[in-house]
Each structure stands twice: as structure tokens, then as C-alpha cells.
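Technical annex B. To support the medicinal chemistry partners, we prepared a structural model of the target in complex with pyridoxal-5'-phosphate, based solely on the information shown next.
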Amino acid sequence: MSEIHPRFLWWNGRQMQWEEATVHVTELGWSTVGAVFEGIRAYWNAETGEAYVFRLREHLERLLRSMRLVRLARRWSIGELSEAILQLLRANECCEDTYIQPVAYRAAGPKTLSGFSEESGLYITTRPMPSHLLSGKVVRAKVSSWRRISDDVMPPRVKNISNYRNGQLAAMEAVLDGYDQAILLNTEGKVAEAPGACIMLVRDGKLITPDITQSILESITRDALLRLAREELGLTIEERPVDRTELYIAEEVFLCGTAAEITVVGEIDHYVIGDGKPGAVTRALERLYHDIVRGIDPRRPDWRTPVGLAQLAMARRTSG
Ligand SMILES: Cc1ncc(COP(=O)(O)O)c(C=O)c1O
């Protein structure tokens, strides 16, 4: 498989050429059973010539929580990992919307389920991921026949790679059945989330979303949107168990997540949501979120970490 890749990645404390970071073929297979990861975005702002990493600290805090939960030892601090990410983005000259993926894995011990070592390895990659915010994208979804894993099976609140087999089964079923997206119910039959995104709905002007004990990831986008909705748009928020049929009669439904950003759901199980187009609340939130993540709107500066590309370009201009 040939894929365009960046020049550099970071692996176990060192930035190196992409081709240099290899492991033996026998590491394939079970090696990711105990791995956890993060998905982070950096948004490019052409006006300032700078990219901003969205909520970097919160993502790294969640990575450390994920590692702790699956018993992987912590080898690098949040400060060290932040610096590694920013340096990598500069080295790869990421002057575009970029996805950053740190992956932490079990680096030693026997390859058996009971074989046990907390020794961890960690690598970080970057790749382009253009934003679809404000593009008017609308998807069709189905409620999956697969249920979301529950906290007494595998911890959905963290980004454990093994969790994604559950989401993948639901996503594949949805695509084979002619839909774009799956929505999973939890084992109680309440709405949980999509395979890679949380879900929100609008009813009577209120923004409603499953609370974090409903078998969902503790999503950073979800948290950001709830704060913006409450504090900037003055919306009433309800975090609570959500019935499946509430989806069908909602005025608006959208998915949210780092990769999903805000994705409008226009139809679920052949029920058209609202008029099938982005609704007023979703559009207001999307505009605000877009302007904040790109640094067009100066509010929430602590959510944006500048990569340092503008400074790099200036240094190059003055030296050249
Ligand atoms: C299962 C799942 N739910 C929700 C989300 C949204 O989380 P976040 O906003 O932190 O990206 C993701 C990842 O994007 C996910 O993989």
C-alpha cells in the first residue's frame, strides 16, 4: 500500500525519518490489543500563517488517563509530549489542517493475555485532515444492531484501540445497509454515540446529549460544544439518558468529535430530522466552533496552542 506520508514522526523520545521507524512483522496482530491513542487536530489560519492545536493539554491528559486505565506506565510528561508534538508539526511543515495521533502501546513482556508488563512505547504521527466545518455536509444514519460496549466490558470512556472493533462492526453494517453513519445504543437501550463521535440533539430549543455514564468516550469536542452552547449562546443543556425515539422526533441532530467536528445528521432510520438540513442551533454552534478553533474568534485562547509556524517562516525570511 503506497500512501503519502510526512517526513518525520516521533517515537520513544526521538523525532526520526518516517522510514526509520519499523518493527518486525511478528509484532502485527495482538500488538494493539493493549494500546491506547489520541486524535488531535491542528487548524490552519491562512491570515496569521499559523496553525493552532485544539485543546492539546486536554487531549494529552486523556491519553495519560487512557494509559493508566489499561496499565501502561507513563514515561513522558504532558510538557514533553506537547513539545514533541509542536516540534513534529514544525518539522513536517504542517501548513494545513492536520490530524495528530499519539499511540501508546505495551512495549515488553510475553505476548500472552496474562503476560504482564507496564513498560510502554509511544509514537506520534501527523497527517493532513481538511476540515469540513461550514461545508453544509449532511449524513444519513441508522441505529445499529450492535450495542455499544459498556463500562463493565471495556472502558468506552477512554481511547482504547480494542474499543474500536465494536465501532467498526457498527460502521461497516451501516455502510453495507446504504447509510453513512451508525448510532449505537448502550446495553440499557439508550442512545450512546457513533463509532467515532458523540451525538447531540435539539428538542424545543434545548441541547440534549447522553451524559458520560452512558457508555461514551469522554469527548473533548463534546465538552467544548457544551461550554460554548451554555456560556456563549445561552442555550439550556441537558446531559441525561436519551431514548432512541427522541432522535426521530428531534428538531436537529449532529455528531461531534475531533475528526467528525460537527456533522449534521439529516435522516435516521428513514425519519427526516427537521427539514433534513443543518438547523439554526447547529449552524450557530458550528460557526462559533469554526471561528474559535481557527483563531478567527479570539475567545478561549487557552484552547489553542500555536505551533510556531509563523515564527519559523519569519525567521526563514530574515535569514534568507
Ligand atoms: C468513540 C468516540 N466517541 C467520541 C469521539 C469524540 O471525542 P473527541 O471529541 O475527544 O475527539 C471519538 C473521537 O473522536 C470517538 O472515537
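Notes passed to the chemistry partners:
The domain at 8-128 is CATH 3.30.470.10 (D-amino Acid Aminotransferase; Chain A, domain 1).
The first helix runs from residue 56 to 69.
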